[in-house]
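Revision sheet: structure tokens.
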Amino acid sequence: MMGRAAAYDLAQMDPASSVVVADVDPAAAEKAARAAGPNARPLTLDAGSDAALAGSLAGVDVVVSAVSYSVNERVTRAAIDAGVHMCDMGGNNDVVDRQLAMDERARTAGVTIVPNCGLAPGLINVLGMEGVRSFDTVESVRLRVGGLPLHPRPPLQYQIVFSVEGLINEYIEPAEVIRGGRRVTVQSMADLESLSFPEPFGALEAFNTSGGLSILPRLLDGKVTELDYKTIRYPGHCEKMRTLLDLGFASHEPIMIGNTLRTSRELFTELLRRKLDTGGPDVILARSTVTGTKGGVRSRLVSEFVDRYDEATGMSAMMRTTAFPTSIIAQQLAHGVITRRGVLTPEVCVPVADLVEQLARRGIRVSTTLTQEQGA
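Predicted:
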């Protein structure tokens, strides 16, 4: 889904370009290329093959990886060897660390590799880091993001907007944060808080989940007192889902179902696929709140946006807010807007003003409000 949206944006917003849409399934590549526009063409490609990847990158300026994060390391090596810029949508901190280890190789090859260009990690991290830069000293950085159904239904008030496996990982893996000036690991689905967005959304909840901060704890270590990332959901979701997880529904412990050996997690994953809604109109809610001082005045900077399902294109808000930032960064690489070389996450290398301006052209409008704290 994210790859189709990225191909569409590349073809529509940069009509002078030639876009190659590659997929292991020729029918999927053909369908995505046809939907993208007349300047897009399909290519059947197995991204798991080093030889096939190398052959596909000849004459390419930049490659967008919208495959599973498990393939991103291979695509990164192929891009560096071919002298081609690359960006991807991230999803796994260990993979990003292995990509960052190729920084010297990328600089020697004169290319730029940008992992984690999606929504979270991605766009929300860029907004948070820009907020940090606007202060002399920073006390806290709070990042909040949620992909929600516009019309929630019980019992979980949630619909599938990306892979179920990825959702479960976010809910059970530990999360790294900064507390009291120290990097620490905290439990996901903990530290429940209440927050609100303008109507019709109103009161919501947010809780720790893993992966959203990516390398921000390292980048901001020693520079901020508090840093965290939480996922936004409709009220009641956390308690119900946490109960299921506490009962072992996401356990890797094997169980016998008839004559078949499965794990609780495999069964739970399949049940969520079958029972949760998919494909309904969705909304993305995102907010970055940075508190600090500038010129001796304590202030708060809030950057936020709300994006909805696009009926005209049939693209979900999750597709738009994940794929469009990635596509914009790819175009920044192709047209020389990003000039630094090496393996760099977007918080470090992406020109924020241009990114926000380009998002507004696509109907994703980031509002920024700076207020002075009472008594400051």
